[in-house]
Amino acid sequence: MRMYDIIEKKRDGFELSSDEIDFFISGYCNDSIPDYQASALLMAIFLKGMNERETALLTHAMAQSGDMIDLSEIDGIKVDKHSTGGVGDKTTLVLGPIVAACGIPVAKMSGRGLGHTGGTIDKLEAIPGFNTGITRENFIRNVKEIGIAIAGQTGNLAPADKKIYALRDVTATVNNTALIASSIMSKKLASGAQRIVLDVKTGSGAFMKNLEDSVKLAQAMVRIGENTGRHTVAVVTEMDIPLGKAVGNSLEIIEAIETLKNKGPRDLAQVSFELAARMLELGGKGSFEHCSSLVRHAVESGEALEKMAVLIEKQGGNRAVINDYSLFPRAKYIFEYKSETAGHICSMKTDTIGVASLVLGAGRETKESSIDYAAGIYFHKKTGEKVEKGEVIATLYTNREEKLAEACGLLKQAVELSDARPEEKPLILAYIDAKGVSSY
């Protein structure tokens, strides 16, 4: 078998076989296939596409290229959740303890943030002492003992995806539904879950900027899951404004805890509770309506909050942070960003807000960048709300005083005001499963 022939076949629009896809993945991982031939194939795929069968085979081959997490020691149905990423997206921190409190094991492998989107692992490491690098043995033991563990992804989880994504990033072949879907789902298959709930973001702060593309991506990932034996559903959620009011690691942990106390922002609670109910439904806890009632009970009874406290303690963190937020890292410089005019906030460029948070120190520009856990932005006003001249829109937190002016400049670009109040958009836009698409 020759790589030349595989490139030619896909260039001419023909379907690749399982053996040909496996040959490409194994050869590229062991460096017997050079970058220029891999680039040629990726461009051929970008231009000619892949059908449902090919996409599933590519995903499976990438998942099998490294470690495959075995969760069989854990009793019960293992359900995972994945978000395509956004600004202020802290749903894992809310739904994980809820789902565990309801009796479904949560064995969550999460990633770090890069660029303007935050990572769950970075947020958890804002908790003093919290260890996200626990061994596989401790990870499994914690799930068996307390029903939940959240740890960083192993460095050898779907290494083919990591290598291929780096190449796609520099060859203008990122924005292809089959390649995006296989990239995401390869890591989910390798993580060992039996069933998967996907949170596909859409809007200015998401990778997919419009609903149509987001639904197509969700459908592709659901089909991959079903074709590889993992029952998968997806929810498309709004990311035209930050989720919740907090953007930044410590700030988001605090907001997640407040949500588990039933005091959090309405939008964060709605999306988190929806995803938690979908996870419980896939885990066999009953109808979606019944699962929604289980979610509410877990929060209102305090059981989910206690589960969060136990998770923190079990992974070396100080559980006292649940009630004493002063234990979190604190910023030296706090600045109030005020409105220069009166009006209604008509839009928020969420990706620009994410960059503003990054500038303050809350995110990474490169994988080697360090994070300031105290840095971030807290919004007092969001899209649709009325603002008076001189009223505080957001509070900025940083240890980099010299970056405040730049961050304020970005917020000025991001937050737009108008005389008329904009129409409120729904937060949850669609539900996708093997049967098709349902609008909310």
UniProtKB/TrEMBL annotation:
One of its GO terms (molecular function) is uridine phosphorylase activity. One of its GO terms (cellular component) is cytosol. Keywords: Glycosyltransferase, Transferase. It holds the Pfam family Glycos_transf_3. SMART domains: PYNP_C. InterPro entries: Glycosyl_Trfase_fam3, Glycosyl_Trfase_fam3_N_dom, Glycosyl_Trfase_fam3_N_dom_sf, Nuc_phospho_transferase, PYNP-like_C_sf, PYNP_C, Pyrmidine_PPas_bac/euk, Pyrmidine_PPase_CS. It is an enzyme of class 2 (transferase). Residues 344-418 form the Pyrimidine nucleoside phosphorylase C-terminal domain. The keyword Kinase does not apply. The keyword Glycosyltransferase applies. It comes from the Bacteria. GO terms for biological process: pyrimidine nucleobase metabolic process; pyrimidine nucleoside metabolic process. Its EC number is 2.4.2.2. It catalyses: 2'-deoxyuridine + phosphate = 2-deoxy-alpha-D-ribose 1-phosphate + uracil; uridine + phosphate = alpha-D-ribose 1-phosphate + uracil; thymidine + phosphate = 2-deoxy-alpha-D-ribose 1-phosphate + thymine. Coiled coil: none annotated. Homodimer. Belongs to the thymidine/pyrimidine-nucleoside phosphorylase family. Catalyzes phosphorolysis of the pyrimidine nucleosides uridine, thymidine and 2'-deoxyuridine with the formation of the corresponding pyrimidine base and ribose-1-phosphate. This is Pyrimidine-nucleoside phosphorylase. It comes from Ruminiclostridium hungatei. The gene is pdp.
